Amino acid sequence: MDDDNNTEELLPAERRQQLVDWFKSNQAGTSQDLARMFGISVSTIRRDLDLLASEGLVKRTHGGAVSIRSRATYEPSTDLARRTALEEKQGIVREALRFIEPDQALLIDTGAVICHLLAEEIASLDIPLTIITNDLHVAQVLTYKPNIKLIVPGGACRFGSFSLLGEPGLSFLADIRCDLFFMSAAAIDEQCVSETLLELVQLKRAMIAAANRVILMADSSRFMERALHKTAAIDAIDTIITDEGLAREQIDKFPSPGPQFITALMS
């Protein structure tokens, strides 16, 4: 829709209040979806989101916005996560690829769209790699790749996700030593990385212990938040790759020495 005729009778302040109310019960939305929902143009919704972000009511992403509220137990659906901060996630994945070299053994985390995007990029590489993952989507993407030795430690599939949790995966990972662990997280603050599900925390801890270097991939909307279960102290992370939405003053709150921060630029 190219004009605002459907809502011309609605004052901008009233429309923005409706947006604030919508974000109280929804974690994230894309500009396109919100424009369609409110019957206004994408350019108008972007201006609204910019204003709300300047007032600290939402966090802006390149493709929309996320609400500012506790992530203690909230988990977005895979479909919503695939449409939220997509360009930021793609930029982060491009930076992550720079760490991959031939003949490395890589652990790829489970339960996050950014790991799926990484797997899709790795699938196009023509170098020998060993990939270990407990994510069924990642495994499917990397199946039938002659240059990739694929290992899936196993476990019980969590309903509604691609994650295999528990045994025998945990015992298998205890005896594995890998070059890199590409990790995701529900929430990150200056003290720790955290998740909403205890079984997922147990798996991630085993992967951290198995890796020579831990690389955390997370878009800026996940920072300065804390989920229900602590996964690891922030000093367990070697490198954090995020996007330009994480302000310098927020990065400065992290301990020094601490993780190396890499800011991915969007193409």
How is this fold's topology laid out?
Elements: H1 12-25, E1 28-30, H2 31-38, H3 42-54, E2 58-61, E3 64-67, H4 78-83, H5 86-97, E4 105-108, H6 113-122, E5 129-133, H7 136-141, E6 148-151, E7 156-157, E8 164-165, H8 169-173, E9 178-183, E10 187-188, E11 192-195, H9 198-210, E12 211-217, E13 229-233, E14 239-243, H10 248-251, E15 260-264
Parallel strand pairs: 4-5, 4-9, 5-6, 9-12, 12-14, 14-15
Antiparallel strand pairs: 1-3, 2-3, 7-8, 10-11, 11-13
Q: Can you describe this structure?
A:
The chain folds into two domains: 5-69, Arc Repressor Mutant, subunit A, CATH 1.10.10.10; 79-264, Rossmann fold, CATH 3.40.50. 34% of the residues lie in helices and 23% in strands. It is built from ten helices and 15 strands. It has helices spanning 12-25, 31-38, 42-54, 78-83, 86-97, 113-122, 136-141, 169-173, 198-210, 248-251; strands spanning 28-30, 58-61, 64-67, 105-108, 129-133, 148-151, 156-157, 164-165, 178-183, 187-188, 192-195, 211-217, 229-233, 239-243, 260-264. It has a seven-stranded parallel beta sheet, with helices on both faces. A three-stranded antiparallel beta sheet has the order 1-3-2. Helix 7 (136-141) links the parallel strand 5 (129-133) and strand 6. The longest helix has 14 residues, at 12-25. It comes from Martelella mediterranea DSM 17316.
